[in-house]
Amino acid sequence: MAYDSHEIRHLPESSCTTKTELGLLRFMTCGSVDDGKSTFIGRLLWDSKLVFDDQLTTLESESKRVGTQHGDIDYALLVDGLQAEREQGITIDVAYRFFSTDKRKFIVADTPGHEQYTRNMATGASTVDVAVLMIDARKGVLTQTKRHSYILSLLGVKHIVLAVNKMDLVDYSEEQFDSIQFEYASFRVSLGFENVVAIPISALKGDNLLHPSDAMSWYQGPTIMNYLETVTINQDVTAKPFRLPVQWVNRPHLDFRGFSGTIVSGTVSPGDSVVVPSSGKTSTVERIVTFDGDLERGVAGQAVTVTLTDEIDVSRGEVLSDPRARPDFADQFEAKLIWMHEEPLLPGRHYLIKIGFQTRTAQVSALKYKVNINTLEHLATKTLELNEVGVCNFSLDHPVSFDAYQDNRDTGSFILIDRYTNGTIAAGMIDFTLRRAHNIHWQSVDIHKAARANLKRQKPFILWFTGLSGAGKSSIANLVEKKLHSLGHHTYLLDGDNVRHGLNRDLGFTDADRVENIRRVAETAKLMVDAGLIVLVSFISPFRSERQMARFMVENEEFLEVFIDTPLEVCEQRDVKGLYKKARAGEVKNFTGIDSPYERPEHAEVIIDGSKDTPEQAALTIFHELDRKRLLSSD
Question: What is the rounded distance in angstroms from the CA atom of residue 223 to the CA atom of residue 207?
Fold first, then answer.
């Protein structure tokens, strides 16, 4: 085994032979902050004699400079690689380490304990087979212990090592260990773990890591390493149905067309039938191509290019599958969601959803409940905050291929992405397809939008008026509709106050309710455009995301955003409804511009200076823009 210029500390030459390969185990450490996760991994590497000489020199220097052991070796510094982590004495990112013994190879993920980094912990948990859940023997089972346990359960981790650490600080008390073990056992009973093994340890002293502890002769169970080397993981992904998410359509020339990706489950051989779930088209595998040549059999974990005997349509994101056990293909499903962003989840808001290589627009159509981490109780809620877990119904703009997460981690998991920042804001695990997705189909009709518009001799479109309360939206929209009506156009004005008397009378003024308010109005406006009408929408509509959603619901040139740009102080001076006065007095909550934000349009087609232009001047400006875009001509 080559180590380049490195030399392993105290490693005998005979130990440099190739290890016997008995399988790879992926495991992680997790738990509350300062429970000793990094120290545990560092000591494990140290005692396994897998620390290089140059690492040893750096470790000794860093231990004296920023260590927490008063100049002695601080084993945590072997894995706390980020400068910010070393300075603060905490783990922020997920640190991965590879090591091996004579019995097994390991990849270990050291995950952060702070609550604000729960998303990093969930990332680490998504690929592991075993979790070492650390508990400080002095503190016992904490809220973060329960949160991490629940997330491990959600992510399908079945094997748990309950590592009760820092036993040296409680005089190696058997009673303290038994108390913690009993408390955790009562909590985890409903989490679905297959195997939970409690082991008392001292990561700093090395007790019960590699060798049994003389200080805890009362404990007769396995050491940490003994358990990790011998635990049996029953996750044979090759026995599951074949799934190949297509990452790339490989067509270097006219005589070759292959579909490249990594097999995530099952096996495939030339001559096997495969299906494209989106179309239902089937074909036969002709070749399984790799860089090193063709394969007679492809198995889960291999990156391959598959060619087919038939010229069927297969695009990036499709999932080549076993036709005898097809994935679901639908646009609605229920899923568990871990929210990972400071801004809360707002049902009805449009996000990007990424399942494998499929990216679609999605919204939470129903937030069924969130989970109280301490009690596992289901709580009614309208939103999810950072690190909260909920169960939601999702609605997508197009169907996608997927499996239930419990059946296939790769094709049953997804992330949500913010459409503006492109940042990942949530991770989800699909439970099942909603039956309504199979019961609802588009009905073909003969009279379409163009026919309705031709009958009215006009082009249908939406004029979307946005601005603060008191900006003048309703007055200007009313004048524009009167003028359109006088010219013989068929119109309808959807006004914010009027709609809240009927369609949206059940909604309040929280951010979640505002999002749903605009979603319903946008859907209504879309139907009216389909009916051939010119629709005027006058709503504060404070969030860019929902205004953008409304724009994307109709075709290009069918949506014009009109921003009535009236300063807050002018709106307050007008205060025609007395709402600003009440908001300032605290009598009205979540009032836009006062204690709720307004996001100014970035690309409005028409901008009206509401502090200078009269409603009549504003209406004239809008008509000039309609003429310029030829929206009022019938040809």
Answer: 9
Query: Which residue in 541, 596, 611, 633 is the catalytic one?
Result: 541
Residues in the chain: 635
199 by DSSP, 3-state: which?
Answer: strand
Cα–Cα distance measured from residue 50 to residue 41, given in angstroms and rounded to the nearest whole number: 11
- Which residue carries 């040296």 as its tokens? 168
Q: Yes or no: say if 370 and 387 are a contact pair by the CB < 8 Å rule.
A: no
In single-letter form, the type of residue at position 364 comes to: V
Better-predicted residue by pLDDT, 282 or 375: 282
Taking phi first (over 0 means left), then psi (-120 to 50 degrees means alpha), and beta for anything else, what does residue 17 get? beta
Q: Is 541 a catalytic residue?
A: yes
CATH architecture of 331-435: Beta Barrel (2.40)
What is the mean predicted confidence (pLDDT) over 110-125? 68
- Bridge partner list, 244: 320
Residue 408 has pLDDT above 70, yes or no: yes
> Which residue in 336, 345, 338 sits closest to 148, CA to CA?
338
The CATH number of 450-628 is 3.40.50.300
CATH code, residues 13-230: 3.40.50.300
Q: Which residues contact 258 (CB under 8 A, 6 or more apart)?
A: 249, 250, 251, 287, 289, 305, 306, 307
The domains of the chain are located at: 13-230, 237-321, 331-435, 450-628
